[in-house]
Amino acid sequence: MRETVVVTGMVLRAAPSGEGDRRLVMLTRERGRITVFARGARRPGSPFLAACRPFFFGKFTLYEGRDAYNLHGAEITAYFEELSADMEGACYGSYFLEVAEYFARENLEGTELLMLVYQSLRALSKEAIPNELVRRVFELKAMVLNGEYTELPPFSVSDSACYAWEYVVAAPLQKLYTFTVTEEVLGEFGRCVDEAKRRFLPRPFHSLEILKTIAGIG
User: Fold this and answer.
1) What residue ranges define each of the domains in the chain, with the CATH number in brackets?
2) What is the pLDDT of residues 73-82, one digit of tens each?
């Protein structure tokens, strides 16, 4: 009998596979980005039907194969239903998942990136912080975790925007979304993050283009 492994993680992407299966890309604390097949997950009555959706976070029991894993069971602890009911929030969340998939590495520990995604989705679910500020904080911190950033903003900005940058670079993930800024400062901060992305993340993201169309952001 094959041994099982238990991982804590989140479904980043789900796609049909074969006649009734689903192929999942997951970010896990223990093994980074992994591919998981959920056999029969698209068939009515499947016990995996509710565990194979993006944003779902929890503990997953897997059988380890040569090139991928097979899903054996799941205990979902966070669904982020609020995002599913909010088109704009879902688009922001989908962008975060796409960036996480890009940065995550196969079979390498992914605790910090997983926590960043989790905390960012929680921040999107609350009204205290504007979604666009959550996006900019997430983008910068993702680059920080990947070792691609500058300690100071890439060009001269106001003291408030500079402080926001320095705070995001240094703050622990649990304290990341504990501030807000004016629209003017957010604009400055966003331009600095865009410049960093041009240097360190020079690739298009499909979900971001959709988000720009829906939310009218730059």
Assistant:
1) 4-78 (2.40.50.140), 81-215 (1.20.1440)
2) 999 999 998 8
Do strands 21-28 and 57-64 pair parallel, antiparallel, or not at all (unpaired)? unpaired
Contact 22, 71 (CB under 8 A): no
| Letter string b/e over residues 124-154, b meaning 16 or more CB atoms within 10 A of that residue's CB | bbeeebebbbbbbbbbbbbbbbbeebeeebb
pLDDT at 218: 76
Band (pLDDT 50/70/90 cuts) for residue 1 is low
